[in-house]
Amino acid sequence: DFIMAYMKVEDGPGSDEILVNNTDKNWPIIRVSNDPKQTLKKGGGSANYFLCGYKAILFHDEKVKALVKKPVGLKIFIASNVPPAGGLSSSSAFTVCTAITTAHANGILNKLSKEWMSNAVWKAETAAGTMCGAMDQTISIMGQQGKSLQIHFNPTITTKDSPIPDSVVLVIANSVTKCAKVETLGTRFNKRFVET
Description:
This protein is an alpha+beta fold. It has seven helices and six strands. The strands form two sheets. Strands 1-4-2-3 form a four-stranded mixed sheet, with helices on one face. The two termini are 31 Å apart.
């Protein structure tokens, strides 16, 4: 699970920034402007994944951007049991959760389709430097408990769900071997796209 609780700051101090804290004290506190035009931070890290999700909603699509007159300031608290850099899509979980939180806090979540959201978050996450596919973002947004999801991306995102029988057990395991994408972009993570 990756959960974000938020409080809007619409006026006064904090109305022009976003403050992100985490139950995991190993994660740095993130403090960024709420200006959707801001650039990603040098050195990468969790702030950039946050900004990718934020910008997916409020920067990349002119029609969606026009739905929000002034982005709200936010104070966000994260609770997650998804291990970072463990190969279990922690960056996508972070980016997707940020996008959903941003859309909800700014009153436009119900105006965005799940297909649009999946595509927007995937495209935005590539700005962090990863040549990621859209599978992790799409299953995070469109998946349902107790069902498998067949996903097609060409020409557009379409899905078909199937119930998982009670007799089937899926095991998703953390290898406890960390491999941070950002630090290994040129030697590992992005290399697999070049090789295929």
